Amino acid sequence: MLLLRLIVKNAFRHRLRALLTIAGVAIALTAFGLMRTVLDAWHAGVSASSANRLVTRNAVSITQPLPIAYKSRIRQVAGVNAVAAGNWFGGVYIDEKNFFANFAVEAEDFFRLYPELIVSPAEQKAFAMDRKGAIIGRKLADRFRWRVGDAVTLRGTIFPGQWPLTIRAVYKGARPDTDETVLYLHWAYIDEVMKKTSPGRAGQTGFFMIGIDDATRAAEISRNIDAQFRNSQAETLTETEKAFQMGFVSMSEAILMAITVVSYVVIVIILAVAANTMAMSARERLGEFAVLKTLGFAGPALGGMLLAESLLLSLSGAALAMVLLPAIADAFAKNLAQYFPIFFVSPRTMVLLPAFGAAVGVLAAVAPAVRVGSVRIAEAFRRIG
Hints:
This protein has helices spanning about 1-10, 15-40, 45, 70-75, 105-115, 120-130, 140-145, 185-195, 220-230, 240-250, 255-285, 285-295, 300-335, 345-375, 375-385; strands at about 55-60, 65, 80-90, 100-105, 115-120, 135, 150-155, 160-175, 185, 205, 205-210, 235-240.
């Protein structure tokens, strides 16, 4: 206990310096954690992907459509248990700044493929019976204060015109990484209007979501689906949902790499600051360490004391960061929900904070601890004199 009290007193001997060191470590680790959370948010769609879902799109580009007639042929492929057509709708609510994702889907099959989207049976039935109905996520409903029964009109961009909708259901996510900021409307509603206004665009869809029985056969089933349409006017590319989502993430690879590098640079900077603090502490107390050596303390014991002081300061900063990060991330998620619909601190990030805090504490004290442990008593007193 006496040794522990000595370590604590020495660590906080210069209170301002100690508090600034703790604050510096806390700010650096909080920044690191926030950047890691941004990276996790960017990959949220990938992590939420199911191994039992495939996506079939046009082999040329996701922007090129596929005939809806492909659905029946895909459904006949061995191993496929469900198929739902879908299309990015790209509707705008009042102004472009009110951006949110909106898809036209074949609702019955689509929601069977996505059990993580929880909708009450009554609301799902009401949506199915209303061709102009829409299902929205809980966060989207909170953002615009929409409720079931509200009338909403979207201005089409990909599908020009005004599209009146009625909110028939609000879904909740079964998992933390479920996106609750999406609006879904009926694909049949879009197709019906296209038959009247642009017949050449009717009977087409952007992609097919496919459910399979056995995830281990995903590659085989994908090849079999694409073989159905080889040498056709609209050849297909079928891949796992995870690979499909990764295709979008890879478009921002340079940005993600920059954020990753910066997050580790922050740790290196605070390591340099902490190392300077411990070096100053060791130099100022060189005479004290010499006295302790004359009293019988071994060099490794003195180095261990300095190491413990460094760990105490850095882990205190890490503990403070663990308190600050969730609160900051929560505020970040509320204010930037339209850009990061899924934004929460993962357990892995929370584990990394004390781990890096301990690493900073150890590495910052290595050189001063070796110096203190190896200094000769006469040399130390000579420096003091």
